[in-house]
Amino acid sequence: MHIKDTPAGYGLVSRLFHWLMALAIFGLFALGWWMVGLDYYSVYYHSAPDLHRGAGILLLIALLARMAWRVLNVKPDDAELTPFERKAAHLVHLGFYPLLLALMLSGYFISTPDGRPIDVFGLFSVPSIIQQKGLEDTAGLVHRVLAYVTVGLAVVHTIAALKHHFKDKSNILARMWSGPLDR
Amino acid sequence: MTFRLAPLAVLAASLAFAPPANAADYDIDTKGAHASIGFRVKHLGFSWLTGRFDTFGGSFSFDDKAPEKSSVKVEIDTASVNSNHAERDKHLRSPDFLDVAKFPKASFVSKSVTPKDGGKATIVGDLTLRGVTKEVTIDAETIGGGADPWGGTRQGFAGTTKFKLADFGVPKDLGPASKEVELTLHVEGIKK
After folding, report:
1. Do the Cβ atoms of B79 and A114 come within 8 Å?
2. Structure ipTM
3. pTM above 0.90?
């Protein structure tokens, strides 16, 4: 069992980051979509946004840790890809980091410009750093657009992975699930 | 920014070409913030949720001897809604409530003033909110007036009115106890 990444594939830590964050991103997207349409008298009117904010902060922490982990690890081999595929994959993978960072920061700025902190499941809270009237409107627009872009990119990423798995009979998807195969 | 400044420019131009002020025309002192427009709506029927509009302007004309000849005009920047909670204010500015992108201004223009005893009066006028213009009645009261310590003349009033949110096309239903909103205006005018 590899903890770190090797040229042959991704280690345990990278795979956990990948699948848990994928789950969290799609989950938060669905939750966000659903919660903004809730009726004022829905029992979830407060708990759903609380969950969305708390999970979003945890996802932000996970993202920062994942970026650090990526720098500390070797990049698994992608020699089987065509030059175009390699370039596209690289662009999509690297695109996710700034996109997710901006997505989560914009969410933070919806909830905090009046000085209120974000509570993370009662464990700790993230203080407000910028108090500016009206910032919540800009942040809200950015958050919505980036959420669609991120999920759109994730769908492209998924389709590409399935194409390599089923059409090209490549092990790219398998090694992201079960780790590098010792040869 | 430019679209918010445009009405101000129109206001400034109309002031510049207005006929000479008679003895009883006043500008509402928003510069010194001796005026406020607040609102309150019942929350679940359990308490009053209060808020205000931070940006507005207006003028009135007032004659001590003939209060029935008075008139008042107020314009509110709807995006300046402030209930001391950024997320709620964002929601209040959205199409669910004020829809400020589509309706950046609300206004009140008086049509008649009926004086009553004890410095009180009934002001009937047109309130425009969310693009809907409807008649509302403000119960007004003279608070005081006269020379201020800095060489000017001031006159102040308080007024309240209430109306149903749905009457002005607000689509969001906040529940059976929260269908009405009360507006409270405190205005102090400086004589032109």
Report:
1. no
2. 0.83
3. no
CA distance B65 to A108: 57
Structural domain harbouring A115? 12-178
Q: Could you write out the three-class secondary structure of B113-158?
A: EEECHHHEEEEEEEEEECCEEEEEEEEEEEEEEEECCCCCEEEEEE
CB contact under 8 A, B79 and A140: no
Q: Which residue has the tokens 């750093």?
A: A129
Inter-chain CB proximity A136 and B172 less than 8 Å: no
Number of domains observed in the structure of chain A:
1
Band (B4; pLDDT cuts 50, 70, 90): low
CB distance from A133 to chain B under 8 Å?
yes
Whether residue B115 lies inside any domain: the answer is yes
Strand, coil or helix: B191: strand
Q: What is the dihedral of CA A138, A140, A146, A151, to 10 degrees?
A: -170
Given a contact cutoff of 8 angstroms between Cβ atoms, the answer to whether A2 and A12 are in contact is yes
A7 lies in some domain: no
